[in-house]
Amino acid sequence: MRAAMRAAIAMIALVLAGCGPGAEVSSGRELYLAYGCAACHGERGDGRGPAAALSHTKPRDLRDLAAYRGPRTIEGIAGTILFGVADGRTGMPAYPDIPKRERMVIAEYIHELARAPRGITVTDAWTPTSNAVWQIAAAYVSITNGGTKNVALIGATTPAARVVEIHEMSVNGGNMSMRKVDRIDIAPRTTEQLQPGGSHLMLIDLTRDLNAGDTFELTLRFDDGSVKVATAQVRAATPSGATGSQPVDPHDDGLGARRSRLDFDLIDHDGRPFRSSSLRGKRALLFFGYTHCPDACPMTMSKIARAYRDAGPAARDIPTLFVSVDPRDTPAVLKEYLSYFGAVPAKGLTGSKAQIDAVVQQLGAKYEIRDSGSAAGPLVDHTLSIYLIDRDGRVQKKFAPGDDPSAIAKDMLQD
Predict the structure, then answer these.
(1) Same domain, yes or no, for 104 and 125?
(2) What is the number of structural domains in the chain?
(3) CA angle centred on 148, ends 81 and 43, rounded to 5°
(4) Stretch (H or E) spanning 308
(5) Residue 305 sits in the same domain as residue 397
(6) 63 lies in the same domain as 110
(7) 113 near 47, Cβ under 8 Å?
(8) Which residue, 252, 321, 289, is CA-closest to 175?
């Protein structure tokens, strides 16, 4: 009976293994999965694989070295894989056909499973320099749940801000959406990255300026009652790269029929009328945003700054039009905000809702002002694309959120 049971388990393992790993598989986890170890021991090594129910003795939780009956060294674990467990009580078969090198790699992976921390760990806490206009910032951390149960981040505090909220941000089709949420779930044996373009902690009503090189304490609370304190570093804002980017059809620049000459009237950051016709004979970049944004907008402005640096002096005559879609952004607010992006020859633009809507519609963009219950006030969903306008006042190209600054720089210099 036990022999039949072991044969059944071995068969399930063989099916899950897909008849061996193939030459391209090399990491311990890949080999662990490819040879069907997860059939009994589970994908996370917790002993809860699909074949576990067929065994009279529960498969080992590989994360607990103390529960091992055999040797607990890497060499010993590799030997157990080779010879199996022939005590008549378990269904662990021998795997003599697994090459020695691969047995050792699997054994190293299993040994690291047991060495991994079992609780919650918080690493790489940081924030970009603060937004001096609105006194807000976004903080990012890496949270690892080394335990066996789901945990959730439910709150945070810091002496650097009077309020800290959990926000989730997503980008779909070039449009950014941000929401205040009550929790972020972290599955067992996984790491949740709070990072630009995704989930973050929004620091509201800062009690101090956050300058590059500074540090401050960040206290995170979890639903299991645990509390973790991390030291957050303040870093200069850098472009977020491909974070949140969407696949783009290379034959479709997203402009469709929107090739007609732009025609709009707004107010610039000096309080003077600005007409699109004033751009005739010049190229320009155009970006929709708002100064109260702690994540996507400053990261996009940093990306634009990098593009100007890559393009060199020849690009200094190409202005960036920062069109605010937030009625809180007065000309004076826009002027102060853009002064913090000195590498960008930017002009802040605002106007009535009708005037702003006219620009948004001409470019096929979107925005929505929502009262989400955030202490920061309304949150604004909006298009994150960057538009390159040619000398005739038409849109030459639309850059997606994931486009590299060097690609923007290259197109800025091409007529």
Answers:
(1) no
(2) 3
(3) 40
(4) helix 296-311
(5) yes
(6) yes
(7) no
(8) 289
User: Do the beta carbons of residue 287 and residue 408 sit within 8 Å?
Assistant: no
Tokens coding 79: 């030997």
Question: ∠ CA 232-238-240 to the nearest 5 degrees?
Answer: 100
- The model's pTM: 0.67
The residue whose two tokens read 């709070």 is: 194
Q: Give the relative orientation of helices 296-311 and 405-412 as an angle to the nearest 10 degrees.
A: 50
Q: What's the rounded Cα separation, in Å, for the pair 405 and 399?
A: 10
User: Which token pair is 287?
Assistant: 């970006």
Quote the CA–CA distance of 72 and 265 in Å, as a whole number: 74
CA distances from 52 to 6, 187, 243, 269, 293 (A): 11, 21, 39, 67, 50
Are 25 and 51 found together in one domain?
yes
Q: What averages of pLDDT result for each successive group of 10 residues across the chain (415 residues)?
A: 47 44 62 86 80 72 73 86 69 84 89 72 92 88 88 96 94 87 91 91 94 95 93 77 37 50 96 95 95 90 93 93 96 93 93 97 94 89 94 93 91 86
The verdict on residue 258 lying in a domain is: no
Does residue 218 belong to any structural domain of this protein? yes
Length of the chain: 415
Are 282 and 367 part of one and the same domain? yes
Closest CA to 23 of 124, 102, 108, 136: 102
Q: Domain residues for 286? A: 265-412
The residues near 356 (Cβ < 8 Å, ≥ 6 apart) are 266, 323, 324, 325, 350
* 399, β-bridge pairs: 386
Residue 122 in contact with residue 230, Cβ under 8 Å? yes
Tokens for 90, please give them.
């378990």
